[in-house]
Every structure is written in C-alpha cells, then in structure tokens.
Amino acid sequence: MVEQTGYDLIPHIAIHPNQINIYNTVEWYQKKRFHPKTAHLVKSNKSTNGKVSSIANRKITKAIDYLLLMANDKKLPSKLHGKVFNFKISFITLTLPSPQCHSDNEIKDKCLNQFIIEARKKWKVRNYLWRAEKQKNGSIHFHVLVDKFVPWSELRDVWNRIVNKLGYVERYRDSMRAFHSGGFHVRENLLQNWDYKHQIKAYQAGKANDWNSPNSTDVHSIKAVQDVSKYIKKYSTKNDENGTIVGRIWSCNEELSNIKGAVELVSGDISTELKCVKDLYPNKLYSSDYFSVLHVSINMLQELKCFFLVQIFSAFLITRFNYNLQLNT
Q1: If you ran DSSP here, which 8-state letter would residue 326 be given?
Q2: For residue 131, which of 233, 250, 266, 318 is within the disulfide window of CB 3.0 to 4.6 Å?
Q3: pTM of the prediction?
Q4: Rounded distance, CA 234 to CA 91, Å?
C-alpha cells in the first residue's frame, strides 16, 4: 500500500476593528517536512534609517485601530471654563528642552521608558503607542498616543523632571540665563512663526520660574479632529525626513503588539454573512492569489446585522483585552 501525501486548504477569517482578513490554512495528510536550508529564508530587517517599513506601517495601523476602538468617548469637566468637554485619546509630544547630547537609545531607555512607567501609574494609562522622530535641529522627540486624559501641567512637570536626570533642564536654564543676561533679547530668526508679543510673554513666564519649567511638552485631545483614525495613522506612519534614529522608532504596550485578530474557521453562518457583506460592498474587497481583505468596520457589521461576525470579535476582545464591546441591540 502506497501512503499518499497532500493537503487541504481550510478557509479562515481574522476579524479586526476595520477589516476582515480571509485566507486559507494548510492541513497536510502527512506531517510536512521542511528542508533544513529553508530556515534562513525568514529574516528580520532591524534598520530604520528614518523610514517606516510596510510591515511596521501595518502593525502601527492595527495597533491604532484597537487603541481607538477601546478608548471610549469620555466626558471631563473643565474647572477653567466650567463646561464639560469630550475626548477620546490624548496625543502627547515630548521634546528635549536643550540640544541632544546623549544617544537615541539612552534617551529612550532612561527618559521615554520612565515616562511610560509613570504614565501608567499616575494617569492609569492602559493602552499606548509611541513614535520617535528627529526634529529639524537633529534632536529626537516623541509622539505618544494614550487612552487617558493627561493634564498639561502635570505632563510638563513629569517630563522635565525625567529628562533633567540627564541634565537637559539645567542646560536649558543656563542657556536662557546667558541669552537674556542683559534683559529681553528677541529671536529675530523666529519672528515669522513666533511674533514679538508671544516672545515677550514666554520670556516673562520663563524668568518668573528662573527657566526651570521649559515648554518641552504638548498634549491635545484628538476628539476635535473629524477623521481621528486617518489623522493619527498618517502622523504616526509618515517617514522621518530630518535624520536617522538609532534603534526602535515606535512601540506600544504588549496587548496591542502582534494582534492576530479574532480568528475563526469559515463555516455556514459565517460564510453567509461574508457573502452578504461582499455583495453589498464589492468596492471594499481586495483580493490576491493568497488572501482577501474586506475593509469594513465593526460598526458596519453591526448595522448589517452580521451577528455571528460581531459576536466572534466581541468574544476575542474580552479574552485578549478584558474589554466589553458596546453592541447595538
């Protein structure tokens, strides 16, 4: 008796917040043996040279999709204006108050890492994503997305304290004292974007605290941007034109990394719902020889009453993130 070998293609789906991946897995009749020389074919390119690779782009996009999905709209009272305002996530920028004199990796290790640790403890941040870039002056700075509200004054105090462990606030203070030693000195080269009136105001504020609280941070609520997802993804995945960053240029919390999605075998009910979506939105289907992608959101699936697909994804969120998806009833 001759033993046959072969394989079956088993259809699967992987559901994400804004797309469904449709692909086949291979089930062999006999255990497939790989030639040992094929092991070296899978390589990882760690070089960034300021560019975001296509793989990194997809990972960042996916992480942002999940971060936005689980960052529900929040309402916060404003003590200053006496009103309640909405926000979804905070978009934070962290810069060095004086010229960079440490390696990129040292700043990430001793400053950015410490900031993330304190943000998770102080502001109860659960999900976050950071992206490193070079400023025009060559110094590294960071954009950080977090799922909690972060008060701007607290943010500045925390970051300045952290970077001053490497002396960046002290060097800023010494530089400002010397620059304004004879009184206010206007920065002529900045007048086009920073007028005289605002320079005077910044000088007075800086002098009042003896230049110990540099404007090294910025934070915005992204709720004000109409297309939140598109805006953030464009900002986080754009290539850096101001120089090469040594080491990682982005990262996120472990739960948002390498997300496989809600993986499920395509059966009768699932197949029926997939066909319904494809028929209604043929322009949202991308197909190749190896896989297909349906670019539809979970909200669209709920509107189409694709209950099996939505329930599969909802169960995945509970298992992976302990997050309950708000389902339309």
Answers
A1: -
A2: 250
A3: 0.83
A4: 13
Is 89:67 a contact under the CB 8 Å cutoff? yes
Collapsing DSSP to helix, strand or coil, 7 comes out as: strand
Nearest to 294 by CA among 322, 328, 270: 270
Give the Å distances, CA to CA, from 295 to 55, 278, 283, 292, 298: 18, 10, 9, 10, 10
Q: What is residue 165's predicted lDDT score, i.e. its pLDDT?
A: 96
Report mean pLDDT in 10-residue bins for the chain, 329 residues: 64 95 79 39 42 84 91 71 75 95 95 96 94 91 92 95 97 94 88 88 91 92 63 75 84 92 93 94 92 94 94 94 79
DSSP class per residue in 54-69: HHHHHHHHHHHHHHHH
The domains located in the chain, with CATH, are 9-23+258-321 (no CATH), 57-167+215-248 (3.30.70.1910)
Calpha distance 285→281 (Å, rounded): 7
Partners of residue 285 on adjacent β-strands: 294
Say which residue the tokens 């670019």 belong to. Answer: 295
Q: 21: closest CA among 280, 238, 290, 283?
A: 290
Contacts of 216 (CB under 8 A, 6+ apart): 94, 95, 96, 97, 156, 159, 160, 163, 168
Q: Is 276 exposed, middle or buried (0-12, 13-18, 19+ CB in 10 A)?
A: middle
